[in-house]
Amino acid sequence: AANYNPARMINHVLLIRGEWDDTPTFAGAEKLYKNLINASSKRYVVIDKSTHVAHLEKNRFALYAEVSSFLNENVIKR
């Protein structure tokens, strides 16, 4: 069992994983996203052709763009 309850998260949540990431698995990420029922907002993004260390890989700029977009929409405009 997890040490937390995703349903209790009330803040903005950005879930990003690489297409080839196995931590979390696709099923695990989907389950987490589905259980974020009380999040102020939530977004689930899969970065193409990336792994768990997407920030070190060729598609890292897609990762940076998604984080920037999420922060601009949910944090900076508050």
Q: Brief overview, please?
A:
This protein is 33% helix and 18% strand. It has 2 helices and 2 strands; from the N terminus they run βαβα. Strand 1 (12-18), helix 1 (26-34) and strand 2 form a beta-alpha-beta unit.
Describe the structure.
The protein is α+β, with helices and mostly antiparallel strands. Helices cover 33% and strands 18% of the residues. The protein has 2 helices and 2 strands, in the order βαβα. It has helices spanning 26-34, 60-76; strands at 12-18, 41-47. It has a two-stranded parallel ribbon. Helix 1 (26-34) links the parallel strand 1 (12-18) and strand 2 (41-47). The termini are far apart. The model has no long low-confidence stretch (mean pLDDT 92).
Report the C-alpha radius of gyration, rounded.
Answer: 13 Å
Q: What order do the SSEs take from the amino end to the carboxyl end, as H and E?
A: EHEH
Shape: flat
Runs in which pLDDT lies below 50 for 5 or more consecutive residues are none
Largest sheet: 2 strands, parallel
Q: How confident overall, as mean pLDDT?
A: 92
